[in-house]
Amino acid sequence: MKATIIGAGAVGSTIAFSLATHGTASEIVLIDINEEKAKGEAMDILQGSPFFGSMSIIAGGYPDAVDSDFVIITSGIPRKPGQSRLELAQTNVNIMKDIATQISKYAPNAIYIIVSNPVDVMTYAFHKFSGIPENRIIGSGTILDSARYCAKLAEIYETSQGNVNAYIFGEHGDSSFAVWSLANIAGVSLEQYQERYGEKIKSFPAYDRAEVEDFVKKSGGIIIGRKGATNYAIAVSVAYIVRTIVTGMNTAMTVSTMLHGQYGLDGVCLSTLAIVGKNGVEGLVEAPLTEDELARLNKSAENLKSVIHSLNLD
Predict the structure, then answer these.
(1) Using one digit for the tens of pLDDT, what is the confidence trace for 55-89?
(2) Which of 13, 60, 151, 224 could tie 41 with a disulfide, CB 3.0–4.6 Å?
């Protein structure tokens, strides 16, 4: 499999490292405006290849993306401490327009994964600028937020992260929300798990659901404030999307896709449950939501639409 990664910063280079070490891609092209940085990252990863298998990784330009199976876009101005993702919008939309119009000429058949922030707006912009079919455009969306949510619930309930199924819907940002009605541990709702396991065998710490959601939303900002960037968790999230497509096993995940009537929403990219498989987005699952959750999804969509309408997308 051949993957082209546009943007060799902390996120892009860590995605390249993840794809290489897992053997997901045998050929990787790194493209960055800072060519020396891209060359250094490629050289560093390649020199570790005797420990994880044969591969090719180069720093190149758009023509080198020909025949790519995947194109992963991470380019953009990074978020600064205290800055919201949406404040980045117009600057990064301009960058996305330049990338989309160029890369789509060389890799028209690739599946595109958009990681640049604000990711829902960038995914929408890529739709508008690229001409790539919708099923082959996937925004990383709230897949990382959902992982953070699952990790926090696993910590609270002292269980393996793999036992927890829980999702964050909406914008990858301030208007996202936890779908508590679908959260479960080993297929058992949180309430039943607490009642049938916790109260009989052990007690779990009391927690406030709003505080858990707040923690999920603020985690990225906290990490950026402490180390300057988030890269490991988002990299493994993107690598997971790629592996899912490579294996062809249809998998439900919260990635950002264009909606066409689902939940009564249209013309906006945000995260609900999408089925991702060998062709990219195979379809969306309209999971049942409570009235409050549906209202929050609509609010998130309106928040994103207001930003989109304020942008120059010509």
Answers:
(1) 999 999 999 999 999 999 999 887 677 767 667 78
(2) 13
By three-state DSSP, how is residue 79 classified?
Answer: coil
- Which member of 22, 172, 260, 309 is catalytic? 172
Return the structure tokens found at 130. Answer: 């690229």
- 309 among known catalytic residues: no
**Do 66 and 105 meet the contact criterion of CB atoms below 8 Å apart?**
no
Alpha-carbon distance 239 to 116, whole Å?
Answer: 15
Distance CA(276)–CA(259), nearest Å, equals 15
- Residue 34's closest CA among 51, 55, 9? 9
pLDDT tens digit string along 126-154?
Answer: 999 999 999 999 999 999 999 999 999 99
- Identify which of 204, 208, 227, 226 has the alpha carbon closest to the alpha carbon of residue 216: 208
Rounded Cα gap, residues 273 and 153, in angstroms = 19
Is residue 122 within 8 Å of 140, Cβ to Cβ?
no
Q: How far apart are CA 85 and CA 123, in angstroms?
A: 13
Query: 3-class SS at 204?
Result: coil
> What gap in Å lies between CA 237 and CA 258, rounded to an integer?
20
The model's pTM: 0.94
